[in-house]
Design a protein that fits this description.
By secondary structure, the protein is mainly alpha-helical. It is built from 23 helices and 8 strands. The protein has a single domain, classed as Amino acid/polyamine transporter I. About 70% of the residues lie in helices and about 5% in strands.
Length: about 525
């Protein structure tokens, strides 16, 4: 068995090195750069528009109002997408990036998010444009549909004449769905639950239970926590996207605001270290300290870790959040695209930045849990416990800081499990039909208990790879359809900003186009 696991680990490492290596990251960032250039830096040139259309309409009835049909509100779609993206990567992932790549990794995380805003924008525009109603009357959209129907619109010439890309698009769509389901079991279930159990067991230890080992190093406490999480997951996810969205819209704003407030308290108390922290971020991005290699090698390490953690956090380019954004009641593709921009902004520019500053300022730049100048972690800490230690520097009484971070990790990771349940079910639906998705949800619930008893990082590493494999077919589709994204964007700006009398571009399907266009005209 050990030889088999070693072989699996070796094969996975080779694949992971490609999908999350120079090729994968170049494809990812390159796509964001191309979309940004083709839309004339939409995230900057129209910052007022997308800000006003998202956070500016947060309390509008058509944004937060619940619907009686199978659709969810734009705000619910955002919260469900954030539920899946705001996870352990925002706490432990950011800390790991800093530990490996230094303070400079934070700069490259910002760069990835800046261009990732437009990748996510393009994905959501295509997701709404190519969505359709399933047999249950629910909107279905995602990378698999714009790969199938979007790429199918294109053709190429070979020695036999003109050939359609419909079949390659269909193959890429199937591969995307397979990778999505596998990733949902790993990084969307077992990996997150493993982190929940580890943090809760450490912060709220019950010796009467943790002292009893059921098998190996797995305690009775771990199993009980796993069962409780499994029951909670079942109650919510088996109710479908409406129930997931209802829970997400209540938990996500609360957990993000709570974590940001706690972080601001830490940063405010250590205010003298704020400017030096930012200086370390910008300087070390291009001139990293010796601990990350120094020179060009150090820059690559800092850049790679910043990009990787940024993508892991906001998932822009993976094609995952499109599946829930497509369930939104919104009619205009560009409107939901702007919610995609805000999603990346909130996840990386706000939550991840708060985590980074907590680590870099806690206890002062040269002390505390991490020394930004030397890259040294304080004794007794690891990247997994760094943020909890930073909070404990200020909230030390009764280890309140550690407990606060454990609760935050629970909320962040648990909502990620809920979000990925929906992603996996949509992939299953594409392959096997809407009426059978309950089978997937049951399987997904069962995987939760495995996360509670995992002692190896192999499952996390494998799901990591499948997460990256989702990115490749998705970005191929996005790259092919950038001209369409630009056309839809121009159409929206001409109508909504320049007030020109032109027909709206809403759907690839003539029936949906006619129906939705009539409703848009009445607004």
């Amino acid at each position: 068995m050990s030889n088999f696991l070693s072989q699996v680990e070796s094969i996975n490492g080779s694949i992971n090195g490609v999908v999350w290596g120079i090729f994968g990251l170049a494809l990812l960032i390159g796509t964001g750069i191309i979309v940004t250039l083709c839309t004339k830096f939409f995230q900057v040139s129209h910052i007022g528009l997308w800000w006003k259309s998202t956070i500016g309409k947060l309390f509008a009835k058509n944004v937060i109002g619940h619907r009686k049909d199978k659709q969810i509100s734009p705000f619910q779609a955002l919260c469900t997408a954030l539920a899946a993206t705001v996870g352990t990567g925002n706490i432990a992932g950011v800390a790991a990036a800093i530990c490996i790549g230094g303070a400079g990794a934070v700069f490259w995380m910002w760069v990835a998010a800046f261009f990732g805003m437009m990748t996510n924008y393009a994905e959501n525009v295509l997701g709404i444009y190519f969505r359709r109603k399933n047999s249950e009357g629910e909107w279905s959209g995602g990378a698999m549909y714009y790969l199938q129907d979007g790429m199918g619109r294109y053709s190429y010439k070979d020695h036999q004449g003109e050939a359609s890309l419909k079949k390659p698009g269909r193959i890429l769509a199937v591969l995307f769905c397979i990778f999505t389901m596998l990733a949902s079991f790993g990084i969307g279930s077992m990996g997150q639950v493993n982190k929940i159990v580890a943090n809760v067991a450490a912060a709220f230890d019950v010796r009467a239970l943790s002292g009893i080992n059921v098998f190996g190093e797995v305690s009775l406490y771990n199993i009980i926590l796993g069962v409780l999480i499994m029951i909670l997951t079942a109650v919510i996810t088996l109710g479908g996207v409406k129930r997931i969205a209802t829970v997400a819209e209540k938990i996500v704003p609360f957990m993000v605001v709570l974590f940001v407030i706690g972080s601001l308290v830490i940063i405010g108390i250590n205010y003298q270290a704020i400017i030096p922290a930012f200086k370390a971020i910008f300087v070390n991005a291009f001139a990293p300290e010796a601990f990350v290699g120094g020179g060009i090698g150090g820059v690559i390490i800092a850049m790679t870790n910043g990009f990787k953690r940024g993508v892991f956090s906001n998932e822009a380019g993976l094609g995952s959040s499109v599946m829930v954004h497509s369930n939104s009641s919104v009619k205009e593709p560009v409107q939901q695209g702007m919610w995609g921009i805000f999603e990346v902004f909130a996840d990386t520019m706000v939550v991840c930045t708060m985590t980074a500053l907590v680590v870099l300022t806690s206890g002062g730049l040269n002390g505390g849990v991490f020394n930004a100048k030397t890259g040294e972690i304080a004794e007794g800490f690891t990247d997994a416990t760094l943020v909890g230690g930073a909070f404990n520097e200020v909230f030390s009484w009764g280890d309140i800081g550690t407990k606060f971070v454990a609760i935050a990790m629970f909320l962040f990771a648990f909502t990620t499990v809920l979000g990925w349940s929906h992603y996996g079910s949509k992939a299953w639906e594409y392959l096997f039909g809407a009426k059978t998705t309950v089978i997937f949800r049951i399987i997904h619930v069962i995987t939760v208990i495995f996360g509670a008893v995992l002692t190896s990082s192999l499952a996390w590493d494998i799901s990591d790879t499948f997460n990256g494999l989702m990115m490749i077919p998705n970005l191929i589709g996005v790259l092919f359809m950038i001209p369409l994204v630009v056309k839809i964007t121009k159409n929206y700006l001409d109508r909504r900003v320049k007030k020109q009398d032109v027909a709206p571009m809403i759907s690839y399907d003539p029936e949906i186009q006619a129906e939705q266009a009539a409703e848009v005209g009445e607004e």
